[in-house]
C-alpha cells in the first residue's frame, strides 16, 4: 500500500513540475481543448443531446478555470498579459456576458496592446453586453496590429447592428459590412464561420439596399460554403439565417427544413420555432385562398374574367415588345402551360383577386386567376 501511495505522490509531483516548467503552454492547450469541445460538440454527441450542450460547455469551462487556479501566481511571472487573455477567453466560451472576462481581457490589452487575440475576445465580451461602440473599437484596435479574419468578420456584424442617424449611413454600414466579410473570407477560404457571416452580410444587403435575386443567390452560395465546415455546420444561427433567405427565394420546403435544423441544434432557442410556425400559418392561408379563389363570390369572379382584355397587356400588347434595337415576339399562353424556371417570350393575362402579406413584409404573394384569351 505504501508503494502505491508513494507512486501517486511522485506522479503528482511530476505533474506539478510540468506545469511549473511552462504553465502558459499548458493553459493554452487547455483553453484550446475547451473550444474544440464546444465547436465540435456534435462530432462526439448525438443531435438529440443538443439540449445538454450549453450545460456541458459550462461544466468544461469551470474545469478549465480550475486549472488557472492551480497555476495561481504565474500571472505575475513575466506572462501576465497572456495569462489574463487565456483565462478571459476561457470564460468567454459561453454565450452569456461574464464581467470577470471583461476585466481580465481589459488587463491583457493594457499590459500588451499588440495582443490581437485579446482585443478580439474583449470586443466579443463587450458585444455580449450590448456595448456595440466599445466592441467596434476593440475590433478596429485589433486590426491596427495586423489584418486578421476574426476582426474583419466581427466588424461586419457590428456595423450591421450599429445605430445610425440616417438611412444613408445605414446603407454605407451594410455595404462596408459586406466588404469586411469578403475580406475575411479571402484570408481563409476554408473557414465556414467567415462564409456564414458573408452570407448574413448579403442577406442584410438584400433587405436594406435592394431586393435583388442576385444578392440572394450570393447569400445562398456563401451559406453552402459555410456548411462544408463542421464548426459552422454545428451553429444553429447558420441554418436559421439560411431559412430566412430560402423563404424569400420562396423555397418553402427547404426553408422549413432549415428552421427545423436550427431548432434541433439549439432546442432552447425559441425564434426558429416561432418563425417556422409563422411560415406554416402563412402557407396555409395562401393555400386556402387558392382553393377558394380568393374568397371572391362566383358572380364577381365571372365579371372579373369577362373584363379581361388585351389592352391590359400594356407594353406587351400586340404580342411583341422592343428591347433596345431588338423586337421580341411574345406568345400569349395560359398559366398552366408555364414550366418551372424561365419561360422566355411568354406572356400571360390575368386579374389580381387578392393579396397576402406576411409579417416580414416581403415577398408579396398574389393569388391570381389567369386566363389566356383563347380561354374566354
UniProtKB/TrEMBL annotation:
<dbReference type="InterPro" id="IPR038645">
    <property type="entry name" value="TTC5_OB_sf"/>
</dbReference>
<keyword id="KW-0802">TPR repeat</keyword>
<dbReference type="Pfam" id="PF13181">
    <property type="entry name" value="TPR_8"/>
</dbReference>
<dbReference type="InterPro" id="IPR011990">
    <property type="entry name" value="TPR-like_helical_dom_sf"/>
</dbReference>
<dbReference type="InterPro" id="IPR019734">
    <property type="entry name" value="TPR_rpt"/>
</dbReference>
<feature type="repeat" description="TPR">
    <location>
        <begin position="236"/>
        <end position="269"/>
    </location>
</feature>
<protein>
    <submittedName>
        <fullName>Tetratricopeptide repeat protein 5-like isoform X3</fullName>
    </submittedName>
</protein>
<feature type="repeat" description="TPR">
    <location>
        <begin position="116"/>
        <end position="149"/>
    </location>
</feature>
Amino acid at each position: 500500500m505504501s508503494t502505491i501511495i508513494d507512486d501517486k505522490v511522485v506522479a503528482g509531483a511530476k505533474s506539478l513540475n510540468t506545469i511549473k516548467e511552462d504553465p502558459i503552454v499548458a493553459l493554452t492547450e487547455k483553453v484550446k481543448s475547451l473550444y474544440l469541445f464546444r465547436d465540435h460538440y456534435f462530432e462526439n454527441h448525438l443531435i438529440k443531446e443538443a439540449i445538454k450542450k450549453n450545460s456541458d460547455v459550462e461544466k468544461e469551462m469551470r474545469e478549465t478555470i480550475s486549472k488557472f487556479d492551480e497555476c495561481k501566481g504565474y500571472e505575475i511571472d513575466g506572462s501576465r498579459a497572456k495569462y489574463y487573455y487565456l483565462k478571459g477567453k476561457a470564460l468567454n466560451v459561453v454565450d452569456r456576458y461574464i464581467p470577470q472576462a471583461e476585466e481580465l481581457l481589459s488587463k491583457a490589452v493594457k499590459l500588451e496592446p499588440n495582443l490581437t487575440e485579446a482585443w478580439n475576445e474583449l470586443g466579443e465580451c463587450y458585444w455580449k453586453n450590448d456595448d456595440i461602440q466599445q466592441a467596434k473599437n476593440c475590433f478596429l484596435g485589433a486590426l491596427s496590429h495586423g489584418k486578421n479574419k476574426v476582426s474583419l468578420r466581427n466588424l461586419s456584424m457590428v456595423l450591421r447592428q450599429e445605430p445610425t442617424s440616417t438611412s444613408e449611413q445605414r446603407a454605407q454600414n451594410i455595404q462596408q459590412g459586406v466588404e469586411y466579410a469578403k475580406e475575411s473570407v479571402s484570408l481563409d477560404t476554408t473557414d465556414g464561420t467567415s462564409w456564414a457571416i458573408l452570407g448574413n452580410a448579403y442577406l442584410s444587403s438584400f433587405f436594406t439596399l435592394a431586393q435583388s435575386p442576385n444578392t440572394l443567390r450570393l447569400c445562398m452560395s456563401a451559406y453552402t460554403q459555410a456548411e462544408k465546415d463542421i464548426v459552422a455546420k454545428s451553429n444553429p444561427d447558420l441554418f436559421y439565417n439560411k431559412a430566412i433567405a430560402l423563404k424569400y427565394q420562396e423555397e418553402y420546403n427547404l426553408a422549413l427544413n432549415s428552421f427545423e435544423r436550427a431548432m434541433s441544434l439549439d432546442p432552447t432557442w425559441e425564434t426558429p420555432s416561432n418563425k417556422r410556425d409563422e411560415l406554416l400559418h402563412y402557407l396555409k392561408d395562401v393555400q386556402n385562398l387558392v382553393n377558394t379563389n380568393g374568397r371572391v363570390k362566383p358572380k364577381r369572379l365571372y365579371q372579373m374574367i369577362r373584363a379581361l382584355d388585351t389592352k391590359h397587356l400594356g407594353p406587351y400588347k400586340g404580342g411583341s415588345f422592343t428591347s433596345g434595337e431588338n423586337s421580341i415576339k411574345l406568345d400569349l399562353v395560359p398559366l398552366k402551360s408555364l414550366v418551372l424556371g424561365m419561360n422566355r417570350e411568354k406572356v400571360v393575362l390575368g386579374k389580381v383577386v387578392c393579396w397576402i402579406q406576411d409579417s416580414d413584409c416581403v415577398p408579396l404573394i398574389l393569388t391570381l386567376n389567369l386566363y389566356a384569351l383563347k380561354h374566354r
